[in-house]
Amino acid sequence: MIQYPKLEPFNFLGLEDQNYKKSRVVIFPVPYSSTTFWKSGTKEGPLAIIEASRHLELYDSELKKDPSRMGIFTLEQLEPSKNSPKETITTIKKVIREIIRDGKFPFMIGGEHSITSGAILAFYQKFSANFSILHIDAHTDSRDEYEGTKWHHACAMRRARDLGIKVTHVGIRSISEEETEYFKRKKINTIFFAPQLPVGKIISTLKKNVYLTFDLDAFDISIMPSVGSPEPGGLGWYEALHLIREVSKKRKVIGADAVELCPIPGISAPDFLAAKLIYKIIGYAI
Q: Which domain holds residue 225?
């Protein structure tokens, strides 16, 4: 079992009575950030989310239950490697692998999107390619290489496809020519551009087991301006929840992450949105 001290007072939801053995969900904060964003600061995202979460109501009126009662344990923040993205990803893989082995649901909060590769590699060890990735994002993150590395946040979904894992992209509204040519060459058609959100069709592209990765820039910038790479347009709050709720009904969500919150000093609403989204996903998935 992973041995981590509690992050007092930075436990997700401010839960005081944390018990790793009895918890079904493990929150894993990864404050990793490179300098390639239009706006830097995603390394501040995890603690901003955790701080905001402490002010949420635990009872979910939609689900008519308190999801926190299933047990939610918060790990200490990961100390990212200063050497390379790949080294951080390797460490993430080891931690997520232990969480999976302990029969827990891992929920990673970031930090930039490159960290998702670590979780995907851990699930690949357990499931091989017998799971899908539901990738909710403004960007396809499918470049082969960017800024001198294949482990850049712009390459995370390309690395997953290299393993033979199916990826469904939702909310896309920015794509490079290189990625467009790649999708054409590989005859990949599981890309759903905003504002189109055909929920039934999206679900039909997913396997029984699904890893959910949610880049917060998938949301419309009017409700989520605090991201490293903002794009005009995007998903609404209830629109996103409806998709996740329906996916959770028809498929088994095996793990999740929410990434790329870039807090803006003095503007706390996006931090609360991110915290609420994580709690809603936990309620739907478990």
A: 21-285
